[in-house]
What we know:
Elements: H1 4-18, H2 22-28, E1 35-37, E2 44-46, E3 50-51, H3 61-75, E4 83-86, H4 95-107, E5 113-119, H5 131-145, E6 150-155, H6 161-174, E7 177-184, H7 190-199, E8 204-208, H8 220-227, E9 230-234, H9 241-246, H10 263-273, E10 279-280, H11 287-295, H12 304-315
Parallel strand pairs: 3-4, 4-5, 5-6, 6-7, 7-8, 8-9, 9-10
Antiparallel strand pairs: 1-2
Amino acid sequence: MITRRDWLRLSATATAALGLKPNLLMALQDGAVNTRPIPSSGEQLPVIGLGGRWINSNSSVEELADHRAVMHELAKDAEGVGRLFDSAAGYGGGGSEEYGGQWGDEDGFGDDIFWATKVNVVGRGSSEADPAAVREQIERSFERMRRDVIDLNQVHNMGDPATQLGILKEYKDEGRIRYIGITTTSARQYGELEQVMRDYPIDFIGIDYAIDNRGVEERILPLAQDQGIGVLVYLPFGRSRMWSRIGDRELPEWAAEFDAHTWAQFMLKYAVAHPAISVACPGTGDPEHMIDNLGGGRGRMPTPDHVRRMVEWESTLPSA
């Protein structure tokens, strides 16, 4: 078993040996990842987390080693404030929860993570979830993630809020789940999401949001602020759209005014600059990309004037 101290020593040695790109070294020098309070409790969360969708039970040994290293980069130097790992019962055939929990347990970083997952029992063509199946899946998440208490569990993709949020609330009242919420990455479900935000005592929502996907700024994000609901950002790079639109363009010099040293940091800083956003959760299986992404939460953040300039810049790019 590798200890947390061993990992930090080996990781530091490997980083020095490989030589990080200068822009990533600059990001590391920008200090700790900024935090923001969870509206319902005041607990602080670092504004950059990790989406665990790509950790798969069928991944190769090499891929799993990379994902394990990514998890270590997520947890490293969290300074007593757990960085969020966003998983789901259905991600990777259960591999996301299973491997994330195993690595946290075996390598000693479990307490440095804010563990988030999702329940998704509702099947196609069904409007109501079987309560027994919901509880079974929730219990399986505890087993896979090797946690007595899960920090956040959300209803996945708006599946039967009445049944599943009710059951999650029971777990919260028992102290086994600390926060509850609901997610969607489909604009077709935004109206239903707004209704849930008004009708249920939830702590979080998870939504799609990127510099080229700003629809939630009109109603969802203001409602979250009004209702005291935290917001997790999924797909902050617009799936892969923004990378193809940016192409080989150089980062504008004015990005340095808010400590964005790479395009990933530029896009992540756009997302977390909005005061309603709690955490952006980009997914990656590359440890260097994880370091880069965490840089999106370090240093200065865009001002409102910067945000307007970023939107103007995005409008000049070719369509995806």
